[in-house]
Design brief:
By secondary structure, the protein is an alpha+beta fold. It is built from 11 helices and 11 strands.
Length: 392
Amino acid sequence: MLLWYCKESGPTERIAVNFDYTDEQKALKDEARRFLAAVSPLAVVRASLENPAAGYDQALWQRIGEQGWCGAAIPEEFGGIGMGYVELCALAEELGRSLAPVPFASTVYQFAEALLLAGSSEHKAALLPQVAQGSLIGTLAVSEGPGVLTAERIATRFADGKLTGVKLPVTDGLAADQAIVLANSDQGPGLYLVDLTGEGIERAFVSTIDPTRGEARIAFANAPAQPLGLPGGGLALLSRIQDRAAILVAFEQLGGADRALEMARDYALERYAFGRPIGSYQAIKHKLADVFIRNEVARANAYYGAWALSTDAPELPLAAAAARVAGSNAYLLASRENIQTHGGIGFTWEADCHFFYRRARHLGLILGAPRDWKRRLADRLETRVALEGQQP
C-alpha cells in the first residue's frame, strides 16, 4: 500500500497521511472485479439463497481457489503466493461487492490467520497448503448463543484430548472440513483444532437472515482435538485473530456498501415521479449523500487498518476496532437506504436490494455484536490516551 505524508511545522505540528493502492494493487483489484462480474453475478447469489442447505456455491469456490486468492497472504513456504495483506484486502473488497456466496471469510480471514498466529509447524505444513489451494474449508467456532462472551459462559469443555459441547451458530459450519473451537479446560479457555469429518461430530443447518453463508449448529461428543497456542490463552489469542479478521471483513463491508450506494444512485436516476427523476428531489439527495459520507469514513478506517495489518503495527488493535465499527455502520446504512430508495419494489423478493441488507446484518455479527466492538474501541482509545499522557 502506497503511503505518503507531509509535515506542517508550527506551534502544533501536524502530519497529513494519505493511503492508496499501488498501480499493481489497483490492477489486481480491477481484474478481480471483472472476474467476479463474470462468474458471480447476483443471479448466483439468488440461486444460493434459494438453496440454503447447500451452504455455499461449490463451483464458484473452486474457481476462486484456482485463482490463488485463498493463498494471497499465506507465505510461499506453506503453499501460498505471499502477495501480502493489502492485496488480500483488495480482494476482500471485491468479494464483498459481488456478495460471493463462498466460505472465504471463515477459511482465509479466521481459520488461516489462527494457524499463522498459533499453529505448530506440523499444523501449518499440513493444513495451510490445502487452504491456499482452496481444497480445505475452515471455520472458527466460538459462539454458544446470544450474550457477551466471557470465560465463565464457555460451556464447551476440553479434557484428555477430547472436546464436548455445542457451538451455535458457526458460520460456514456445514461446509467446513476443519474448525478451531473455543473451549474451557482446567487451565482456562483455549483454542482447539478439530477435524469436522472425524468422529464425535454432529452438524445441523441453522436458518439465519443470510442463508448464503451456511450457518450450523455443531455438537461435539468426545471429538478428538488438538490444542492451538498456549494453555489458558484462548481469549487473548481469539482477540488477536478477530482483530486481523475485522480489518479484512471491513473491506468486504466497504465493497458491499459501495455497491448498494451505486444501486440506489442508478435507480434514483432512472425512476421518474411527477415527471422528474426521483434523484432530483432533496429527500433522495440527502439520503444518498449521508450514505456516501458514511462510506468514506469506513474507507478511511479500512485503509488505516490495512496499513496496520500489513506492517503489524502497534496500532493494529485500535485500527481494527475503528474499521469494524465504521464498516458495520456504513454497510447497514447503505443497504437500508438502497431499499428505501427503491420504494415499494425494494422490499420484494424479486428485487436484489435485500441481498445486501442480509449480508450487512450477517457481516455485522460474525465477529461479535457491534456493541461489543464499540466497547473495545472505547477501551482502546482510553488506553491510547492514557499512554500518551504518560509520555514526557
